[in-house]
Write a structure and sequence with these properties.
CATH topology: Rossmann fold
Helix content: 25-40%
Number of strands: 10
Largest sheet: 5 strands, parallel
Shape: globular
Strand content: 15-25%
CATH architecture: 3-Layer(aba) Sandwich
Distance between the termini: 29 Å
């Protein structure tokens, strides 16, 4: 959950080498080899070997290192595969009403590719109960909901600001959350007080509804004003949000407040591989 009062933000050490830029030569060789290697990583048998009997390389390329973290997270991978199957039935059967492009969110950035980030449990964790954040919180927020003043405690995922700063020179950045508008505004007021990371922000009222379970999901067609789906990636901890555009979805594990979480380090290197892709869907998972 989520909330506008100032509290101290805990500084976090930055590891410069973690965001070392990937050279063009490395990028080309990774692109050529990822397809063959990916199959071995994703179908490891219980003895640690892949279907052909070989063990995956210990030194994996940036894209494979990130994907390996997804495949080894068995609950996430199982949900991701389930959503893949549903995306071939529910979405194509038009049970979910697709959104039309909205020119309110037309592209203004000069960057060719667009990264769309979910917020809660992808980039941060917010809660009404600070005891649910044993490693502490970075700031508090206040907002009003149904006439009630609410205080929330927010923990940023480690390396969040570093990741966004590394990606912003290469991508248009958009926040698309199922959180309510006032709640989201309260978080961004604190988080972006020194620097604006996101070119556009979409909140709950722009989500679609899955009629099978009433869950909020995200339709990227809403963002196709001056953009193409081949240029857009959605990073979300809930694979259900990929239901309408499965090929554009990049899963990530839930963030529940762990200060030792390093998922964004690998995600940054992985996303940088897309900066020159003509169609991002060709190399995704």
């Amino acid at each position: 959950m989520n909330m506008d009062n100032y509290t101290e933000e805990q500084p976090r050490p930055v590891t410069p080498l973690a965001f070392k830029r990937i050279s063009q030569v490395d990028y080309i060789s990774q692109q050529r080899n990822d397809t063959q290697s990916l199959d071995k990583v994703s179908y490891k048998q219980s003895n640690g070997s892949d279907r052909s009997g070989h063990r995956p390389s210990v030194s994996l390329r940036p894209s494979l290192r990130y994907l390996k973290t997804i495949y080894e997270n068995k609950p996430l991978w199982q949900v991701y595969r389930k959503i893949y199957k549903e995306s071939r039935t529910v979405a194509n059967a038009n049970f979910i009403i697709h959104k039309d492009k909205d020119f309110e969110f037309a592209k203004i950035s000069q960057r060719k590719r667009t990264l769309v980030f979910d917020m809660d449990e992808t980039l941060l964790r917010a809660t009404l109960s600070p005891e649910l954040l044993p490693d502490g919180y970075d700031f508090t927020i206040n907002f009003c909901r149904t006439g009630l003043d609410i205080v929330g405690y927010v923990k940023l995922r480690p390396y969040l600001k570093e990741m966004l700063l590394a990606l912003k020179p290469h991508f248009e950045l958009i926040l698309f959350t199922a959180g309510h508008k006032k709640y989201t505004q309260a978080i961004l007021k604190e988080f972006q007080k020194d620097f604006t990371y996101f070119d556009h922000v979409l909140t709950r009222n722009y989500c679609s509804v899955n009629p099978l379970n009433e869950n909020q999901i995200k339709d990227l067609k809403l963002l196709t004003a001056k953009r193409s789906l081949k240029e857009i990636l959605l990073i979300d901890n809930k694979p259900e949000n990929f239901l309408l555009q499965y090929e554009n979805g990049v899963p990530i594990s839930d963030f529940m407040g762990d200060s030792t979480d390093t998922q964004l380090l690998e995600l940054t290197k992985y996303l940088l591989l897309f900066r020159t892709e003509s169609d991002v869907r060709h190399r995704i998972l």
